Structure formats: C-alpha cells, structure tokens
Amino acid sequence: MQVLVGKKAPQFSAAAVVDGNQIVEGYSLDQFVGKKEVVFFFYPLDFTFVCPTELIAFQNKLAEFEKRGVAVVGCSIDSEFSHFAWLQTEKNKGGIQGVTYPIVADVSKSIAKNYGVLAGEEVIDDVTGQVSFNGAAVAYRGLFLIDKAGVVRHQVINDLPLGRSVDEALRMVDALQHFEKYGEVCPANWKEGDDAMQATQEGVAEYLSK
Q1: Range 155-162, long-range pairs (CB < 8 A, 24+ positions)
Q2: Do 82 and 15 contact (CB within 8 A), yes or no?
Q3: What's the CATH fold of domain 14-162?
Q4: Could you say which of 51, 55, 87, 139 is catalytic?
Q5: Model confidence pLDDT, tens digit, residues 66-102
Q6: Which ranges in the chain are annotated with CATH 3.40.30.10?
Q7: Which residues contact 125 (CB under 8 A, 6 or more apart)?
Q8: Fewest beta carbons within 10 Å, which of 66, 126, 157, 170?
Q9: Per-residue confidence at 198, pLDDT binned at 50, 70, 90?
C-alpha cells in the first residue's frame, strides 16, 4: 500500500453517476481544486453486503459534509451502468436508492491502482511473460481526505470485511478545517468543540495540564 498523505491526489477522468440518476463522462476531482475539500472513498463492489451500509451511511450524513463545504465522492470498479442500476434499486432489495453524491466507475481499475487500494497483485510469468492477477481485483475500503489544494491530508484503508466509520471521516474533516483556520493542532480523540493546542512544547504542556 502506498502512502499518499502529503502528496497530490492522483488525477483521473472517468464516467460517473451523479445525483443518483445521471451518467456523466469525464468526471474528475479537479473541479474541486481551490474550492472544496473532498472525501473520496472506494468500496469493493455494487450489489454486495457491507457496501450498501457504507454508501447509505455517507448519504445519511451528507448534509453534515455539505455544511462544512466538503464534497463526498464514491468509487468502485463496477461500470457506470452497474452503479446506475444499483442506485435505482430499493434499499429493501439490496439497493442504494436515494444516494445522490457522485459514484465513479473505475472499470479499468486504474484509479484504485493509482490510489494504492487495489486488492491482489499482478504477477508476471518469468518464462512466458504473461501477466495474471492474484487475489480479488476489487478495491479495498480506502478513504482519502483531499484538501482544497488537491493534496491528500488523511487516508485510511480497511480490508474488505471491515466497514468504516462515517463519523470518523467527519471528525477528520473538522480537525483539518480547525487546523487551517486557527493553526492549532488536534490531539488524540479531539472533536469539534474540544480544546486544541499550539504545536510547541509549551502548548503541549498547557494542554496536558488541563
């Protein structure tokens, strides 16, 4: 797994479904540079089990992200047509109807590979030179918080069976925005409304003495 924190988020242009019912070509995160932070997350597959709980959980908190001026974008290796069908399927039938944030189609798996979340690995036969793939060629549950400059400031990658905490993603957004607004760093378990501290020995001592 590659660490992207502190680096420019890999660029891409791909088909996506937006607003839950519109397929667009050439969707890119470049549109947010200089304007919004982005929570960009990967999930393994449409029409599965843990995945709809995550996508619906992000939708349920979408207003909280939007209140903070943050765009939420999902991505999997499924096609835009699979995304569209899943978005039209009712929740009680395993669908994610009602999800409105964009979902990117990474059919080539190049986006997942560039973000370091593609499960499995390519293997080259030393004799024949043929390339095969070991493992499930799907994305791990990766999440990337990208700032307005297009730089990754936080990433977390879960194995396939382990669902994420949307509240933790919101907490990291709050921490990043607090730091950028006040210049204070956020200690362990910090949440909005808690005391932060100056990144100095005196600041740490003052914080720990409270």
Answers
A1: 155/3, 155/4, 155/5, 157/1, 157/116, 157/117, 160/44, 160/50, 160/119, 160/136, 161/50
A2: no
A3: Glutaredoxin (3.40.30)
A4: 51
A5: 999 999 999 999 999 999 999 999 999 999 999 999 9
A6: 14-162
A7: 131, 132
A8: 126
A9: very high
| CA atoms of 68 and 151, how far apart (whole Å) | 18
**Per-residue 3-state assignment (H helix, E strand, C coil) for 140-188:** CEEEEEECCCCEEEEEEEECCCCCCCHHHHHHHHHHHHHHHHHCCECCC
Tell me 118's DSSP state: B
Per-residue pLDDT band for 121 (boundaries 50, 70, 90) equals confident
Distances from the Cα of 173 to the Cαs of 20, 65, 73, 108, 118, in angstroms?
24, 8, 14, 30, 25
Tell me the two tokens of residue 120: 């499995």
pTM reported for the whole predicted model: 0.93
Task: Give the tens place of pLDDT for each residue, 4-41.
Answer: 999 999 999 999 999 999 999 999 999 999 999 999 99
Q: Catalytic: 51?
A: yes
